[in-house]
Write a structure and sequence with these properties.
Layout: H1 7-30, H2 45-59, H3 65-73, H4 76-82, H5 86-106, H6 114-117, E1 121-123, E2 126-128, H7 130-138, H8 157-162, H9 193-208, E3 210-212, E4 217-220, H10 223-226, H11 233-245, E5 253-256
Parallel strand pairs: 4-5
Antiparallel strand pairs: 1-2, 3-4
Helix pairs in contact: 2-3, 2-5, 5-7
Length: 270
């Protein structure tokens, strides 16, 4: 006998699924990158210098209010057009992230998770969060909890305009979140960003990676688990270890070390 009692529920389920698929599809379409048109021009070096000055003032414990105000009141068009290639974007936003984490943790007394999610960083008339900077701009609007495999649905036009064209796994060895297991803070410059990121990656991997050749095991930073797609999966991790540490770990079992969240502020590179 035809079950007419369950038919409304069946139809409702179909509509829910269809609406869900539509929303996801529309969200993925909204995550399509926006191409920059002025990539051949020189970036705004004065703008990038502001990020360096802010971070240096944080390190030396000099007042930062005037620099904060200058960054807060620049024109958004200048920010978008002035950071017109990935090296400029990475240099500016890594410095801003590291400076503002220290400001929020010390002066503003913010704690996690609010220190990451709160829109507390005024740049060009907009308030950004640390998550906006890391996962939106520097990680090309990846969904924070997807391990790097999925984009954030509906990231917003502005984040897409500001974001890098390609994800660079090395940024994970440059961003400092105030914990003992975080990488140290360095001062990044546009002219040397690639060399500096290579040094940061090699140094951090050297300090955080251990090998057990007898058991054919390698223990790596937990960061590589949280954002494993950024590193190209486990195959990519093996390739990175080969390139940066000159260690062939083909056939090794990869284990991820526990992360030490104990506070360690002002962890500047010596």
């Amino acid at each position: 006998m035809h079950n007419t009692v369950n038919e409304p529920f069946s139809n409702l389920t179909k509509w829910v699924v269809l609406i869900g698929l539509f929303c996801v599809s529309f969200g993925l379409m909204a995550a399509v990158p926006i191409q920059k048109n002025n990539t051949e021009a020189m970036p705004d070096t004065a703008l990038i210098k502001l990020s360096e000055q802010l971070l240096y003032s944080v390190k030396t414990e000099e007042p930062t209010i005037m620099l904060e105000k200058e960054l807060a009141t620049i024109e958004m068009e200048r920010l978008i057009n002035g950071l017109n290639d990935d090296d400029a974007i990475k240099t500016f936003w890594i410095n801003i992230y590291n400076a503002w984490f220290q400001i929020l943790a010390t002066r503003e007394k913010k704690k996690k998770p609010g220190i990451f999610t709160g829109k507390l960083i005024p740049i060009a008339g907009i308030k950004f969060s640390l998550d906006d900077i890391e996962h939106g701009i520097l990680r090309k609007y990846r969904w924070k909890l997807s391990k790097g495999y999925l984009p954030k649905l509906f990231p917003g036009k502005l984040i897409k305009q500001l974001a890098v064209a390609a994800i660079d796994y090395r940024i994970h060895f440059a961003l400092n979140c105030g914990a003992k297991s975080c990488p140290p803070i360095a001062f990044y410059t546009y002219e040397n960003i690639n060399t500096q990121l290579d040094i940061a990656a090699k140094s951090f991997l050297h300090s955080e990676t251990t090998f057990d050749d007898a058991k054919k095991q390698v223990r790596v930073t937990k960061i590589m688990s949280w954002f494993i797609a950024d590193f190209g999966g486990k195959k990519g991790i093996r390739k990175i270890l080969q390139e940066k540490l000159q260690k062939d770990v083909d056939g090794y079992y990869i284990k991820f070390k526990p992360y030490d969240w104990a506070a360690e502020l002002a962890k500047f590179e010596e």
